[in-house]
């Protein structure tokens, strides 16, 4: 497949790219090489390959929801730069 300058210009418009004329020939060669590679992949026999959605086996990585004791409030606030009345205190960022 031979890519033309018009093809490159169309791709550039769709991609919202501006391509300098000095680099157009370089990009034409790269795009043509890529499309030739994809064309070669069409010749690969995939008849025995099952279609998949995921490259790795699906598994649930979440742990079960179990009620457990939480961190004591004083321990959670022990490294806080600012704390007040048992809560983290943060600088005000919105004027209201």
Please tell me about this protein's structure.
- The chain has a two-stranded antiparallel ribbon.
- 39% of the residues lie in helices and 4% in strands.
- The chain is elongated, with a radius of gyration of 29 Å.
- The protein has a domain at 5-41.
- The chain has three helices and two strands.
- The chain has helices at residues 5-15, 21-41, 73-77, and strands at residues 83-84, 87-88.
- It is mostly helical and 96 residues long.
Compile the SSE list and pairings.
Elements: H1 5-15, H2 21-41, H3 73-77, E1 83-84, E2 87-88
Distance between the termini: 62 Å
> Could you give the order of strands across the largest sheet?
1-2
Tally of DSSP helical segments: 3
SS-derived structural category: mainly alpha
**Elements, N to C (H/E):** HHHEE
Poorly predicted segments: none
Share of β-strand residues: under 5%
Main sheet? Answer: 2 strands, antiparallel
- What would you call the shape? elongated
Q: Into which percent range does the helicity of residues fall?
A: 25-40%
Tell me the radius of gyration.
29 Å
Please give the number of β-strands. 2
